[in-house]
Automatic annotation (TrEMBL):
GO cellular component, one term: cytoplasm
Residues in Impact N-terminal domain copies: 22-126
GO BP term, example: regulation of translational initiation
Organism: Abyssalbus ytuae
Stated name of the protein: YigZ family protein
Length: 202
């Protein structure tokens, strides 16, 4: 079975999109994120920007293999907001993304069905306004060796066009490499079989 080592995310924050129903306004935003700290910051900044809104509902997903996700209704009826937003993340197969829908209440209740449609549509519009990109899942390796083996290590790196993230050539030489997941085991074995070079997963 072919190993999947690509994932989809968005490149930049989306422009603001708007969906209206019975005087209620639903503003949709999508953000590329890599950690929960960023998620918190984006939500806080939208709460400040739209301080007179009634609800700030959102869903996010992080990670490429062991995914984390959350959906929040923020006071709307259970599963009428966060879940429909999260549904758009799933149907577009996205990760490392936060979608927030800000609601300004227009005085007329929409009912659960109306809310589901509104939050889903605002989330969908935010995704459609974003640039979706495919990225590769990377693994990191740490290579340790003596100066005498520098040329050998550099030759393997050059021949396989590997990406150096960090290097330290003080007492002992260490290089951290980022390797595409599907090539990671092959590259690991190349270093592992070389004399006087130690390699481990980071």
């Amino acid at each position: 079975m072919k190993e999947i080592d690509i994932y989809k995310t968005i490149l930049h924050p989306s422009p603001e999109v708007i969906y209206k129903d019975k005087n209620s306004k639903f503003l949709g935003y999508a953000f590329p994120v890599t950690n929960e700290e960023q998620i918190k910051e984006y939500i806080e900044s939208l709460k400040k920007r739209h301080h007179s809104a009634r609800h700030w509902c959102y869903a996010w997903q992080l990670g490429t293999e062991n995914k984390l996700y959350r959906a929040n209704d923020d006071g709307e009826p259970n599963n009428s907001a966060g879940q429909p937003i999260f549904g758009q993340i799933q149907s577009h197969e996205l990760t490392n993304i936060l979608i927030v829908v800000v609601r300004y209440f227009g005085g007329v209740k929409l009912g659960v069905g109306g809310l589901i449609t509104a939050y889903k549509t605002a989330a969908q519009l935010a995704v459609e306004a974003s640039k979706i990109v495919e990225k590769t899942i990377e693994k990191e390796l740490i290579i340790a060796f003596d100066y005498d083996n520098m040329n050998k290590v550099m030759r393997i790196i050059k021949e396989n066009n590997l990406n150096i993230i960090k290097q330290n050539f003080e007492i002992k030489c260490e290089i951290i490499l980022s390797v595409r997941k599907k090539d990671a085991t092959t590259i690991f074995n190349l270093f592992n079989s070389a004399y006087k070079i130690t390699v481990k997963w980071l």
